[in-house]
Amino acid sequence: MERAWKYGKTRLYRAEKLYTAQNYQTFLKTFCKNFPDYVFFDPFRGKEVISAPLSSVEKVYVPKECLGFLTEIKRKDSLQELTLRFINFLSAKSDIAVEDFGVHGSIALGMHSAKSDIDIVVYSSQNFRKLEKTIERLVENGALSYVISNRLDAARRFKGRYMHKIFMYNAIRKPEEIHSKYGMYKYVPVKPINFHCTITDDSEAMFRPAIYKIENYKPADTVSVLPKEMIPELVVSMIGCYRNVAKRGDKIRVSGMLEHVENLENSEVFHQVVVGTGTSEEEHIWPL
User: Fold this and answer.
1) Is 163 left (phi over 0), alpha (psi -120 to 50) or beta?
2) Please, what are the domains in the chain?
3) pLDDT of the chain along its 288 residues, tens only?
């Protein structure tokens, strides 16, 4: 089992290496050269990021609205019918209103095929936890099954099978769950660090970015030894596969960029660690 986990971790780690470091830097250089209007210097992060100008956005696909459009289609294909049946099934079993669900991915874009997966979202952290428990119960009863390819899949349990079709579910914040706005904070990278810690709050772990409040910071090497005032309060993952990989009380191993964060509205300062900066091949979160 340990060998299998190490092998699975290595495969996933290599995929993340390519995504977070090599690909992002390649994308950035390509966009700077060929699509400079899509590269934006963010003064609050002090670096260039890939971002589409608002003037170039023709349509925004909102998962809740896409679900509404799907219900209005008169001649639905088999996957569209199955998606609606699945959402209604989950709504009835979880007591979550259908209005709090949405669809994304190829189905939302109308680009799906018979082989496409069912990609759904649920709005709010509370609804996500309810849905998570409901799916767990349905798996125990044999109505659904999990699809697990590696240890992160096993930790997240976000992927399963319904009526021989693979589904995936994630979470989106409701407006009242958004507690910050662009320009509210200034972020300054300090240095890469490696450490172990304990999760104290997982209420925003299911979103992207995934936010974990932590305690019991333990450096994994001498470079990561920090003075008390620089010990991070949060681990923030920009990489989707590290959403919901640990719950309150769990221990994790983290490799990421330590950031100095200043609230520009009240001058408060704290530190956090970001996983998925696109500058290193080593950044990760592993459940212990």
Assistant:
1) left
2) 63-175 (3.30.460), 185-287 (2.40.50)
3) 333 334 344 444 444 444 455 677 788 889 999 999 999 999 999 988 889 999 999 999 999 999 999 999 999 999 999 999 999 999 999 999 999 999 999 999 999 999 999 999 999 999 999 999 999 999 999 999 999 999 999 999 999 999 999 999 999 999 999 999 999 999 999 999 999 999 999 999 999 999 999 999 999 999 999 999 999 999 999 999 999 999 999 999 999 999 999 999 999 999 999 999 877 778 999 999
- Token readout for 59 is 């349509």
